[in-house]
Amino acid sequence: MPRSRNPRAAPQPPNRTDALIARIEAIIEQGVADPLLQDPPQPLSLPLCTRKRTLADGRVAANVTFPGRTEAEARKFNQVLHLLKSAHTALRTGKVFTKRNLYYEESELYGSQARVDQLVDDLAATLGVGRHDLGIGSIIPPSNEIQKLDLGPTRWVLVIEKEATFRTLSKTRYWETSVAGPGLLVTGKGYPDLVTRSFLHKVHIARPTIPIYALVDYDPDGINIFRCYKWGSVALEHEEALKLPSLQWLGIKNRDLGSTADQGETSPFFDITPATRDIPSSQKLSYSQTKSYSRLVPLTQWDRKLAVKLLRDFSMVEGRDRDADAVEATRELQTMLMMNVKAEIQAMNHEGDIARYLERMLEGEYLRACLGQLGL
Q: Which residues are known to be catalytic?
């Protein structure tokens, strides 16, 4: 017979997540639901303090109310309420919300990404927990929480600037089907956060023989993002654990903008009709100079200012950091300014061109890496 359950057995204490869920529910109930049930309804109030104003014993030093004395205060209340609801959903479902997700979900409410970043940190301080404990953060955990990396048969790592491209390649399971063998896809969704950079550094330390490549837009921001991954940001240039000097720039580069007829293909950046394919090779250069690109756009004033700044920064790079990539980045920026054009990674994704492009590039780069390890 099955053993009967003892009705007097002590109940198990709730785990950390359940306790945090209950606390958020209590805050919303006491600060929103209960005041609305009063006759007449009372002002709503939610606890919030900045990390600098958190008291030593964990008590909260401030509240945000609705209706507030100003429109800004009322907006702040709605922002905090939205974050509490999002954290509650994340904890209940196990889904991770990034701060960027939260901003785009209610961009008009927050007004800026910086506002979301500040309030998330303030809310975590108010509750006495870390941002990741709220289910808000990065899908990649902080590096100090990673005890072991199992990279298995991974032969390459591709760091992708654009989330859209990352999702396209993930949907087709490119990391499994690539001719270069099994790999790992990573995206920082534009300029990377510290967690992503630290994770990639940890991957390199764990398996330094795995080549790591960057796929970024052909524009000054793309090159700056590559620079941020490889050499670190200006603000944190002293943080060696955030640098990835072994990172190689795969593309997009100037070479990808023109005809690739030598590989039997045509660059998707060009709007080449059947009639133009019959143009003699001796005339193709002059034709391409007058033919407008279908997926290239002019540099903006901001692009040109950033390009000039990067050229200045690269000219100051010396010693071991001034490798072939630094020289190439300088040359690409100069060409970009001269041509006055830029292009996004998505422009390569025309009828699967991005996959074919990666196949050609990764296979060649991986082969060269293997030969290099053999000293050939």
A: 104
